[in-house]
Structures
1.
Amino acid sequence: MDLGACTERARTGPCFICAFLSGYPDYEHHVIAQDDEHVAFLDRWPTLPGKVLIAPKQHIEHAVRGPH
Ligand SMILES: [Zn+2]
């Protein structure tokens, strides 16, 4: 895995969650549950069996980083 290329793609490429939610074919994921504001789906490259990702449907950046 090329970490530099991966980081660059994550910073400049399309947001994979937005692409997945708009139905872009290369970004399909298996949806487990969803409501109006959130979606839970299986990780396509899970590090553990059954790993689930949960995301807000609204595009939010730096959600993990705290406020400055
Ligand atoms: Zn997004």
Note: Residues 3-56 form one domain.
2.
Amino acid sequence: MFNLRDFRQDVLKITQAEFANLIGVRQDNVSRMEKNPETIDLSMLMNIANATGQSLDQLVGYKKDVPQALEVENVWKENENMKHVLLDYLENNIEHLPLETEWYDNIVKELEEMFQTMFKKPKVAVVGMSDAGKSSLINALLGVEKMPTSWTPTTSISVHIKHINDRPEFIKDEATIFEGSENGFDVNRIHQHSYYEETRLASGPTSILSEYGTRQGDYYSIEDASAAVVYLDSPILQLCDVIDLPGFGTGDRDMDDIMASQSTEFADATIYMSPANGFLRGTDIEFLKASLNALPAFENSQNELEPLNNLFVIASQAHTINHGNKVEVDSILDAGAERFYREVPEEIWENKSEVSNYQYTVEEIRKRFYSYTTDHAGLREDFEKNLRYLLETLPFIIKQNAWNMMNEYLDKYKKELEIEKVNFIEILDEREAKLEQLKQMKNDEPMRKYEMQKARKEVMEKIELFRDDTQASFEKEFSEIVSPDYIVNLIKSKGYKKKKDDMEHLASFISSKIQAKIQNILKYKSEDLNLIINQYIENFEGAIHKHAYSDVRGFKIPFDTKKAFASGLAGIATFGGLAFWASTLGNLGGYILVAKGVSVLSAVGISVGGTASAVTAISLIGGPITLAIAVSVILGMGVFMLGSGGWKKNVAKKIVKEYSKQDALNKFSNVIDEFWDDTEFAFNSAADALEEEWQKKLSAMEEKVSYYSADDVRRSISEVEQMIKFLEEMPIPFCNAIAV
Ligand SMILES: Nc1nc2c(ncn2[C@@H]2O[C@H](COP(=O)(O)OP(=O)(O)OP(=O)(O)O)[C@@H](O)[C@H]2O)c(=O)[nH]1
Ligand SMILES: [Mg+2]
């Protein structure tokens, strides 16, 4: 199709008005034609060709050069191999394993799930205001012009771009459009054929993106379309999935901004784009902060990744700055980094420091700021070099992390199986003693259950207290922050000036301060809750193994209490405070949270960073609401006319008024309530799972001790040995590429 706008700007290099003059139409006609080039008819084309001295062929064939695809070394190959070796090993052994035993069957299933989960490619999300040039940058990285781009707000759904080799066999098309259920479309489930069928809206060549995935498309009004997955063959996709997102700030659909910002939750790395001309103005910083907050921190001194290595803040279309003057572009980046650093409250940097042990200084942050344009290689080199470095490094980190996790799991399984084996041997030798202990255990059960019920009720009561406490402390913090005095002081201490930009930044700073407070209040209370949960689990453990410890001949039933409790979290949507508990479990917790859909690299942060890293995993707590409120307040500031006189006080009052207009305190209070509701639900699910798992173990043991013949027992011994051998011979390659 004839791209009039680009032709006018890039070839003719004249304004719309000049062009209108040249071809003898009104400027609004030109503007309309540029917006909808498909409406340009043949006679108009002839007219343009005549007026500009171009042939029709030249016009229609005009296409801007797309830069060469980003070349990367395919270091993911090794991970892919490792995954296949492991999956093949499972597959080849399945036939010979005693999988009629539910426990053994679960081990194999868990391993399979883990191999699938741990070797997921990192996801790179490209976000920013509409028209920043996100889709253009992606096309350039891919080296093919597959994402629709235009000068008006374009992309309307999240587009997940994956490598063609990652396409499941049952998918035949290049692109598929999906509808989102209540919780959105879960791209991690796309390899499940049934999920694919259930959520698929349409499929075909990538060009269907223009129909379903753009605001100009014929099917834009179909609100059901929520995501697309596209399979392409570009080098960069060997190392990562790329996500093209709708732009912020279009005001087209209420949820667009929040949707786009939520998808950064799943991202391992984020490219945030803002046009160099007007860099990080208005609500831009607000969205950038939301991305920062959701980004996992996995940098640390051992893996030698730099602070915020997975964040790229881009001043796009840098060629527009005085013909791409590098010095001027750099000073725009300097000022942007400075402003951004100032707008992020210290709590957020402190949280990141707690995970990584790095100091987040403005100098470090500045290193994450880059320029970009498809027009001059010199203005994108630095970005491309750093992106390449990150992408070529992540596979090693993911591999090392997977390796650690697998070893930890295998060790756990092996230990449990060894205990089981000892039990069988003892059944042969001293069945009477075992029968006796089992009888006692059965007798103790009603009392144990009763005690645990009581303990559970106590936990619930504690959670209710936490709810009240956190509500009260938040209310206090909120009224301190959203008060004229505090705001006036803030204006003074941060040196904000009486101008629109500064007012927006002030409003933005206040909103992140509030969110940081919510996060911290909930984090501290959740840490208290961790102690209570661990106590609950310890009591349970003590009760079921009472005889094993008190009786010299007592025996232990192999049972991992913590893991059984955690398994109750698997099927539920939000953990509340239990996310913090999970994050104290190291690799196990990382794995549980990753299986839930948080980014692969969060697992690395979680396995080393403890509860501080869970803040990322739960950054959505309050996130969307804070974002929505902040954006309204900031926009409210925009139309606020600054009177003369005590402007600081006036501004402060205006902000306080905006917050009350937004009913902010109430909304935040609901967020806190929901957090504790989720916590209660999660705790009950986990406690139920623990009880259920234990009952299963106990009955299984009872059956063996009471009814197994000596032959049965001998067969069971050989089965458990078979399982141990199966785990011992797992072909886990030696791996010490990078410490994490
Ligand atoms: N010459 C030039 N044009 C660019 C560059 N980046 C973006 N553009 C143009 O800017 C317009 C907007 O770019 P898009 O890539 O569609 O922007 P986007 O961020 O994806 O916008 P939404 O999808 O609406 O969120 C398009 O017409 C692009 O051709 C660039 O580096 N150089
Ligand atoms: Mg786009």
Note: Residues 4-60 form a domain with the 434 Repressor (Amino-terminal Domain) fold (CATH 1.10.260.40).
3.
Amino acid sequence: MTNDLCIGVIGATGALGSEVLALLAESSLHVKQLVPIGTERSLGQEIEFRDLLAPVETDSVSLRGLDLVFLCAPEAASMKFAQEALRAEVACIDVSGALCESPDVELRVAVFGVPAASEPSPLLVAPPGACLPLALVLRPLEEAAGLRRVTGTVLEGASSGGRQGIESLYRETVALFNQEEPPDPTVFPRPVAFDCGPIAGDPDAEGPTDRETRTMDALRRLLLGDAGVALTHVQVPTFIGFGASVALETERLLDPTLAEAVLGKAAGVERWDDPIDGLTLRAAAGREEVLVGRVRQDPSCQNGLLLWITADVLRVAAANAVRLAVGRFGQHH
Ligand SMILES: NC(=O)c1ccc[n+]([C@@H]2O[C@H](COP(=O)([O-])OP(=O)(O)OC[C@H]3O[C@@H](n4cnc5c(N)ncnc54)[C@H](OP(=O)(O)O)[C@@H]3O)[C@@H](O)[C@H]2O)c1
């Protein structure tokens, strides 16, 4: 049986798709054909992938004959491609978030276990961006001592709005430096340069925003018990990066030293104890691991811990997707 794969990447020219391609190129998978897919905007571009040079295609290309597609385009487009791929009997890994709210699908985190190649599901759905780094840190702690509740503030840089989010922060910043009126926000609902605010989505009058709901629901699904979860998402004016200040209460006592030992062994996590170089959003840029530090006792409750987490969400999401692909297709297909 051969394991030379034909792989499509939907959204190959975007922030997430580029990371998936970069990590796919470094992976052990044998790829004999790459089909990068974007919009008409990218027609004429060619993607360099190992020794292949693949022209960008659009939605007019057929997925038939491919072994696997990564869905990395905005959700509506990813959903359409998912349907087409399933009709064409092509396996899919959804990294876009398009399918993550469906209660029928299991959210897949490769380091928690990759479905066996014999498991027939053609669709693997990754958790949404901000949920994954939190799950990678919290689940090992939960396994060690049980979790009663998790509360925290999640900081999201402009990369959460994709390539256009990064460009939008850049244009705003340049305008403000030049003492010009910043352009009207298009990607985010309000200006983001030199400011912080709750991430709007469609907040209902009193409740969480849709973004917060999505992260909390996905996190609850990935945790093993029934811990209460409450998170606030805040937009911060960094170009890339994710940070989270998290307070958690465990069922059994887990002192900071033991928690650090657990995190030191957790897959996909790197404990950060350098006292000089700060644990910043920038420190996580380009890393596949989630960084965690400042593990300390929470004096406000029994069995409480406080943590600071940073991650390059795009890189972490891409690494998870590629690990899922390696787990599924690494041996045979
Ligand atoms: N940014 C994050 O931190 C992050 C993390 C995890 C998941 N996600 C999710 O991943 C998805 C993509 O995010 P991103 O940040 O990579 O966005 P992005 O930088 O704006 O990239 C979007 C990509 O999708 C392509 N695309 C757009 N519409 C398409 C269509 N109708 N058909 C085919 N391709 C289409 C674009 O092609 P062109 O370049 O040709 O326009 C581009 O390659 C979103 O659903 C996002 O929520 C994002």
Note: The longest strand covers residues 147-156.
4.
Amino acid sequence: MPIDESGLKAMAEELVGRVMADKASDDDLALVKQQLGRFPRGMVAVGARCVCGRPLAVVTRPVLPDGTPFPTTCYLTSPEATKAVSRVEADGSMRHYTDLVQNDETIHAQYERAHRLYLAFRHELAERLGDSEEHIAGTSAGGMPVRVKCLHALVAQTLVMGEGANPIGDMVMERIADEFAPNVCRCTTSLD
Ligand SMILES: [Zn+2]
């Protein structure tokens, strides 16, 4: 499956435009701070929301305010999602997923495309924010494009960019659907 670079660029522009139009409110920042247990440094916007409106994943700028390069552009913040994904990681599925991306021709191509889309998304973000990509050029997240190292990063991409953006993210979402899904609110974080 050839990768259509101009198609990816158009998709990245559209995604970044949508994400940046959804400005994080003070409540969003306070919720994300509670979810992570720390202030979300370099957070640009909420990348995905639960049906209730609470943030599930955030988009982080390529360079943090203190100058640290930050390749994990899509970052999972939902504690419910994080817990469900950690369970999948702990049950030994990583080897299975890595085997798929290395040996299944279709999934291999989709995973390579997910990597390119991730880079195109961050490039668009870097251009709009005036951030340098010097230290993270070619680096995406989660082990892409050849391994599966962090399912949280892959699920975050699926949440921010939608179904079809990352084949492994899609598979994990399907697997954890009984515990976590963006259209079923199971949020426990509150501002009270
Ligand atoms: Zn919710």
Note: The beta strands are 43-49, 55-60, 74-76.
